[in-house]
Specification:
Layout lengths: L1 H25 L6 H27 L6 H15 L5 H23 L4 H26 L5 E2 L5 H24 L1 H11 L1 H6 L4 H23 L5 E2 L1 H4 L3 H13 L4 H21 L4 H15 L3 H15 L1
Antiparallel strand pairs: 1-2
């Protein structure tokens, strides 16, 4: 009986994923613009969270540089958007973030723990303050006008970036590079001694995951007419991917997705319905999940399945 069921179990995740993609591809024509925009926001945070967790999850390095890569992508569109086609601008946004991540990785991935976290946070904050200073003191203005794109264009572009992010994360985790990253997180010195080029692997994985964050910033900014350094490099983009991954469950990719979706929806509902009590209620929810379900929503679901199977 198990032999007969095994193929169905093997192909179910693939068929389920394809079904979800088909539904997402046709849904913009049947729902209000508000919900299309909400889905784009969910896509954005899934990309940020999966990109963050693909590198930070197995290695144990806590990066707070997501805001830097997202902001660089936004400013790439603000600078090049009027002179280049949008697909090329998005590609450049990803490449600039990729190159920035390479430089940051080469400079900082030899340090660990809280020092690496503080370095990456300092990068985001440093870029924010530098661009603010440059625009005000050198250009006599603050921020830039940005080209706009139709909601459907933003939606489908973000959907493509989301799929590419999930595929790259899946293949990294399932490849020998994923095993090498896992060994770095468990015992970096031992991984180095058995022949793994630890520094090169960390740097290239950090850069690959940052590419998708930059591409996301490049398209997501076209929802607005104007962007400045305070918005583009907001520190919230550095901390939210970390919270979302922990909220969903750091060990599994579906936990990262679940955490991003639930986190974003809760935020939207609370901001809409309880704008004055948003932070209080949200804080209580986050603390409750971390306190009672330290494995995140995935741990909660696994516990529920065990209880159900016993009954």
């Amino acid at each position: 009986m198990d032999i007969v069921r095994t193929p169905h179990k093997r192909f179910f995740p693939l068929l389920f994923s394809i079904s979800i993609l088909i539904i997402l591809a046709i849904i913009p024509g049947y729902i209000p613009v508000y919900y299309v925009t909400l889905l784009v926001s969910i896509f954005k945070y899934i990309v940020l969270t999966v990109s963050w967790a693909t590198f930070c999850g197995p290695t144990g390095y806590i990066s707070l540089a997501s805001a830097a890569f997202l902001g660089v992508g936004m400013y790439t569109t603000a600078i090049l958007g009027e002179t280049l086609p949008l697909p090329l601008v998005i590609l450049f946004g990803g490449l600039v973030s990729f190159l920035l991540a390479l430089l940051v990785g080469l400079a900082s991935l030899r340090i660990r723990g809280i020092f690496f976290a503080m370095f990456t946070l300092g990068l985001s904050e440093g870029l924010r303050h530098f661009i603010n200073w440059w625009e005000i003191s050198r250009q006599g203005r603050q921020g830039r006008w940005v080209i706009s794109a139709p909601h459907t264009t933003i939606f489908y572009t973000m959907l493509i970036i989301l799929v590419m992010t999930l595929l790259s994360s899946y293949f990294i985790r399932r490849s020998k590079f994923g095993l090498a990253l896992q060994s770095i997180g468990e015992e970096e010195e031992a991984a180095n001694h058995i022949g793994i080029n630890v520094n090169a692997l960390k740097v290239i994985t950090f850069a690959i995951t940052s590419f998708w964050i930059g591409a996301t910033g490049a398209i997501i900014v076209t929802q607005w007419l104007y962007v400045d350094a305070e918005t583009a490099f907001s520190v919230i983009y550095s901390f939210e991917p970390t919270l979302m991954a922990l909220f969903g469950g750091i060990g599994e990719i579906y936990g990262w997705i679940l955490g991003s979706v639930v986190f974003t929806i809760i935020t939207e509902v609370l901001l809409t319905e309880f704008p004055y009590y948003y932070m209080l209620i949200f804080g209580i929810i986050i603390i409750s999940v971390f306190l009672f379900f330290p494995s995140g929503l995935v741990g909660l679901l696994q516990k529920w399945r065990k209880v159900s199977s016993v009954e």
